[in-house]
Specification:
homodimer, about 325 residues, alpha/beta, six-stranded parallel beta sheet, about 15% strand, elongated, DNA-binding
DNA sequence: GTCCGTCTTTGAAACGTTTTCACCGTAGAT
DNA sequence: ATCTACGGTGAAAACGTTTCAAAGACGGAC
């Protein structure tokens, strides 16, 4: 069906090795042969077979990136950062979406391992250290994104989530709010838990401040809307006066939910999210948030991955960026 | 470094062929051997080499999806639709982002072709018919998404953009607006041009209505904001009384730009977007839009692709969904 | 005791590259 | 005229899998 290097060789009247040399080490072959081979390639519409190439080489030129949620702009920005760095190195990034499912996460890890990718970038759903250790033993480096490696066995690129949670909550307290509600995100995810711990720390510093968590809320806009409805359904005196959401998607949903019931943000309830996605600034009430340098995180992660690939013995490195509080109207900014 | 099927065979005391049979045709091999082989696999941490597998098989089990913009939720929803359908068939979807660059689009097409993917789903930037024809000649089916195939040589899944443009604009006229401005998206993209044509048709039906286009505006939130600023900078009597944006991202940007200058939406200027992404409903002023069934489009595209792969001779099929007008506050809904 | 059919296993070939090494011819140096 | 160097080329091996034809083992039927 498809032309192979053998067909090209035949047509150009040279050997297979020479064709390969034209493709990979042009300087080794006589100009005359180069043009004959190129002509043959054009005539036959020859396209290199990556599988054969890779089989021979033992490894591929792609990097796998597994994200928790493609719908979350934080992750797509991060992906673009990684892609950009990869470009510069002649690598390609293949994006896989685990959708916060352990199964899907495992499936994509298997897939990438079978494909012998150059390395794996992963924002893990739960503890994946054991699995990644296997992967690494088989020669594939991995870097965690959006979360530190518990035992520092792997390099990682993340943001100080605890600090982010602290900054967000302290801000809510500083504008006079006292009854804080935290919601969103699978609560058993490390990132989320860290943000919550930061919130607790901030609350502990202020006498009379309380922190409530509203569990059972996932990470999408819809989940946030449901949470907003739930809060609105309470008697006014039982409602919090501020809500801190695990991410901006949830916060945007909460905003919709509250607004639908005539609850004012920020007058009745102040609202802050996390990630500072582009849409946060464009929300009904522009949303305060905690900014993560998503693009930069992606770039950095890819760089670390490549470095580890070049020198597997090097020590793992934990890069932790500082989150930045962004105040907008949803907290009276 | 990594264990091969040969190592497994040796360890289990069987031949290579038997190991392969355990992996692919379990019923052909004696239970006793199966367990010995499985034990060996576990002990050695054997992982199939996909490159070798694919080289032998001649084709891979992945489908490539090239989108114009990963940051646009319309495309990520579409991707999830495709992914979901692929899952059910044991295929994987690899997502590539052309970022509205002809170069990047070409590079990913090359990459997928070299990888001998099972098929390609593409939302093309410009005319790619010639290139896709080549691809198909070499045995890889392709389906267009978000746009019809000009000459109907390829199957496609799209929305009636002309109708969408018409619906949006007619709605603006029905609420009494007469000076319509169209903006956003590379104007040389077919999808955008169709929407504009629809707008023209609607305007032509109403005496005294005018349609202006504001060129040089791309497809991101930032571009929209700049457009909003530009409109705000005009003398009040030169401003349009309604703006139709090529997509919701741009519309959200325009909304920010106008609001920043104290121009009221919809009182001063009504605003409508396209795609109806989740964030549209959550905007400062909830955004009217034209809904595309993104998820369904992705599912359908993947289905068509697989069908064409199974029977390359079948006629191409143009699936065109009807867009749906969604009225919200930004047009006084 | 022979034959036949079934079940299981094996060895070899093939997929399309890249790389290694040996070879050849030519040109320049002696 | 001979030797050396060198640029260019080609043949063959290797990568790890799957498939296929063939052979082996075993039991039952005659």
């Amino acid at each position: 069906m498809t032309a192979s290097i053998r067909d090209v060789a035949e047509r150009a009247g040279v050997s297979v090795g020479t064709v390969s040399n034209v493709l990979n080490h042009r300087e080794r072959v006589a100009p005359e042969s180069v043009s004959r081979v190129n002509a043959a390639i054009a005539e036959l519409g020859y396209v290199r077979n990556d599988a054969a190439r890779q089989l021979r080489a033992g490894r591929s030129a792609t990097v796998g990136l597994i994200v928790l949620d493609v719908r979350n702009p934080f992750f797509t920005e991060l992906a673009r950062g990684a892609e950009r760095e990869a470009d510069a190195r002649g690598l390609s990034v293949l994006l896989a979406n685990s959708d916060e499912s352990v199964d899907r996460e495992a499936r994509y890890l298997d897939l990438f391992e079978q494909q012998r990718v150059r390395g794996i970038l992963i924002s893990p759903y739960q503890e994946v250290g054991d699995r990644l250790r296997q992967v690494r033993e088989r020669g594939i480096p991995a870097v965690l994104v959006d979360r530190q490696s518990e035992d520092h066995l792997f390099s990682s690129v993340s943001v100080d989530d605890e600090l982010g949670g602290y900054l967000a909550t302290r801000h809510l307290l500083e504008i006079g709010r006292r009854r804080i509600l935290f919601t969103g995100g699978p609560i058993d995810m490390r990132q989320i838990d860290d943000r919550l711990r930061g919130a607790r720390r901030a609350v502990a510093e202020v006498a009379g401040a309380t922190l409530e968590t509203l569990p059972g809320v996932a990470s999408q806009v819809d989940d946030g809307r449901a949470a907003g409805d739930a809060v609105a359904a309470r008697a006014a005196e039982d409602r919090p006066d501020a809500i801190f959401c695990a991410n901006d998607l949830v916060a945007l949903g909460v905003l919709q939910g509250l607004s639908a019931h005539g609850i004012s943000v920020p007058d009745d309830i102040a609202l802050i999210g996390f990630d500072d996605i582009d849409f946060a600034a464009a929300a009904v009430v522009p949303l305060s948030s905690v900014r993560q340098p998503s693009r930069l995180m992606g770039e950095t992660a890819l760089r670390l991955l490549v470095e580890e690939g070049d020198d597997p013995a090097r020590a793992s490195e934990q890069v932790v960026f500082e989150p930045e509080l962004v105040v907008r109207a949803s907290t009276g900014g």
